TrEMBL record:
The name this protein goes by in its record: Putative RNA polymerase, sigma-24 subunit, ECF subfamily
A GO biological-process term: DNA-templated transcription initiation
GO-annotated molecular function: DNA binding; sigma factor activity
Domain of life where this protein originates: Bacteria
Similarity remark: Belongs to the sigma-70 factor family. ECF subfamily.
Organism: Stackebrandtia nassauensis (strain DSM 44728 / CIP 108903 / NRRL B-16338 / NBRC 102104 / LLR-40K-21)
Domain RNA polymerase sigma-70 region positions: 21-79
Amino acid sequence: MTGTDTAPTIETVFRIEAARIIAGVTRVVRDIGIAEELAQDALVAALEQWPRSGVPDKPGAWLMATAKHRAIDLVRRKETYARKLAEVGRTLEDVPPPPEPGDPEDIDDDLLRLIFTSCHPVLSTQARIALTLRLLGGLTTEEIARAYLSSEPTVAQRIVRAKRTLAKAGVPFEVPYGEDRGARLSSVLEVIYLIFNEGYSATSGENLVRPVLCEDALRLARVLQGLMPDEPEVHGLAALLEFQGSRLPTRTGPDGELVLLADQDRSKWDRLLIRRGMAALRRAGVGEYSLQAAIAACHARANRYADTDWTMIASLYERLMALTPSPVVELNRAVAVAMAYGPQAGLEIVDALAELGSLSDYHLLPSVRGDLLERLGRTAEARAEFERAAALTGNARERDLLLARAERIRKLPLPPMFVLSPLPNRFRRRRFEVQPRC
């Protein structure tokens, strides 16, 4: 293929290979910012040469080799060439040597190193998310800004500052070892989790879901599974996202309106993703994401909404509460208890949470309370709670649903609206945890 027809091919190849190219070049130059620039240089070279010479048989390898050659040239131009060459000499070979035998902790994989570097705790959560989407998700600055309803200059500055922070802090391009790996891994998992969650239930804007973020998070989780197959929580997170991803096509209607879980056509749930989720869950442990995945599996196993095992879900949330106690996890447990043992049992837990005040600006607390009050026949109180929830939410679709519920509550009896989301979040993240039945 030659001529202008090569442009779409080049763009597709670069998007697929960009993360690996940046990772490979970072090992040479030890600077993510410079590595990304060199990867872009390789893309420019391809745009210049491939229309004339044609797309090579191995386009990814061509881009990697071009970027690495430019990286080596850059290192050689440095005054400290000899020292730098000694430090990175091992990385100048096309194929890096295997890890030393007898050291199972040594994970010699550039992409894994890039993941841990991009998600380093020295960066803020927003910076980690933006940098991860840019380097590993392959999203442009414009796409990230659009996904998070932010301005492109703001996102660009956030990414630039993140790179500078990593360089200034001297963050090594490596996978940490021992106890440090566990701490850093939790940061990596959190970033992937938050990317998916923002796509699954947008915190603001007109759209309830942003599928591109879910797809990128799922891909990152699968990559991490392949790179760290012995980490149970990696499989726990992957299982959770597979289950949630399976229901994405049925969460919204033709006009983007919310479709309640009880009304979703379960025959349209992606069975392949559910099977992948079940396989990952079998390899998961008993950590935070694994327990959330087990909750999601309860929904995935139910052929009908009426078949949902709420008793099991309540038990799983009790275990999650013991592992990672938070007001929002307790709110989820309250909903499960209400579904399993009746609305009064759930309302007692919700009222206790309301008295604490820690969820005073969290719209799902009055949403849940309104549902439980309606089920108990206390319709006037329920309507007030739905109106208060609508005033607190930042998502237009949720606000419309809550206001409609408040207006119709006396005229049209509706089925219970709120159930547990299989994606509970820590309250500090301000994400949806208990959601409309979706």
